[in-house]
Amino acid sequence: MANGSTPATSPDELLDRVQSLSDAVDDLGDPRARELAHELVGAVVAMYGDGLRRIMATIESAREAGATIMDELAQDGAVASLLLIHDLYPVSLRDRVLEALDSVRPYMESHGGDVELRGIENGVARLSLQGSCHGCAASRSTLELAIKQALDEHAPDLLGIDVDGIDAEPVIADGDRPVRWLAVDEIDDLAAGELRAVAVDGVDLVVANVDGSLLAYRDACAACGEPLHAGELSGPMLRCPRCEVEFDLPRAGRAGGGEPLQLAPVPLLRGEGLRVAV
User: Among 214, 225, 227, which residue's Cα sits nearest to residue 261?
Assistant: First the structure.
C-alpha cells in the first residue's frame, strides 16, 4: 500500500513516519489547515484511546486469564507505549520507578551506596543517593549511566528526576563520546580476590571480584596514572603497583589514608549477561 503500513512495518518505522508527518503538518503555511490537521489527529487519538480503554476493561474482567494477557501486553514495547500514552499501563508509575531502582541497586550496593525513592510529585521522582554515593564525585555519572537509563526503560512517562547527593562533575565521562551499555564476557570466570584487565570499546578497565561482587574501574591510578591491573588486591583494597597508593574498591574507589583521591568507577550490571557503561 502506498500510504499505509504493511504487516512488516516495525514500530520504529511507524514512529518515524508519525514524526515526519507531524513535522509536515507544523510546516503548513495555512494556519487554519494546521489547526484542522491537529484537531483531526487529536480526534483519532481520542477514538483509539477510547477503544483501548474498552479492550483493557474487558481483559481486566477476565481475572486470572486477563492478568496473564495484561502482563504479556505490558512486555510488548509497542503496545506498552500506546498504553502509557493513554494512561492505561497496568503497573503504576511508582511501582515501575521502584522496579527500575531495584535493577541498579546491586551495582550501587557493591560500591557501598544506595538509592531511595522519596516520592513522586507532578511526574517528577525525588531520589536520594546514600552511603558512598552521597556527595561522591562519580555520583552524577552513576545517576546518568545507571539510574537514568533504568528509569528510561521502566518508566518512560516519568517527567523528570530530582536528586539529593549529587556533587561535582562526571568522572567517567569521556568528552563528547556517547556512553553505551556493552556486554563484557571476559570476566565470567573471575574468582574472588582476582583482578583482570578488560578492554571494552577501546576503553581500558580493571575488574575486581571483591567477596563475590564484581567492581569495574578505569584502569588508571588516580595518583600516578599507571595501570592498576597488575596491582595487589588485598580484601577490598587495591594497591597501585607503581606508587603503592591503596584504593578502597567497595567505597567507590576512594584512596585509603584520607588522601583526596578516587578512582573512576564504571557501572557494571548483571542481568542478561554482564554489561558495562563506557
Answer: 225
Q: Does domain 181-277 have CATH number 2.102.10.10?
A: yes
Domain 93-164 annotated CATH 3.30.70.890:
no
Does the predicted TM-score (pTM) go above 0.90?
no
Q: Where are the domains of the chain?
A: 11-85, 93-164, 181-277
Per-residue pLDDT of the chain (278 residues; tens, 9 = 90+): 445 544 557 777 887 888 889 889 889 889 999 999 999 988 998 999 899 999 999 998 998 888 889 888 888 878 888 888 888 888 899 999 999 999 888 778 777 778 899 999 989 999 988 876 666 655 566 666 778 888 888 888 898 888 875 543 433 344 455 667 788 987 888 999 999 999 999 999 999 999 988 899 999 999 999 999 999 999 999 999 999 999 999 888 889 887 889 898 888 877 667 888 88
DSSP, res 111: T
At residue 11, what are phi and psi to the nearest 5 degrees?
A: -60, -40
Contacts 24+ apart (CB under 8 A), 178-186: 179/144, 179/145, 179/277, 179/278, 180/277, 180/278, 181/149, 181/269, 181/275, 181/276, 181/277, 182/275, 182/276, 182/277, 182/278, 183/273, 183/274, 183/275, 184/268, 184/274, 184/275, 184/276, 185/273, 185/274
Whether 93-164 shares its CATH topology with 181-277 is answered: no
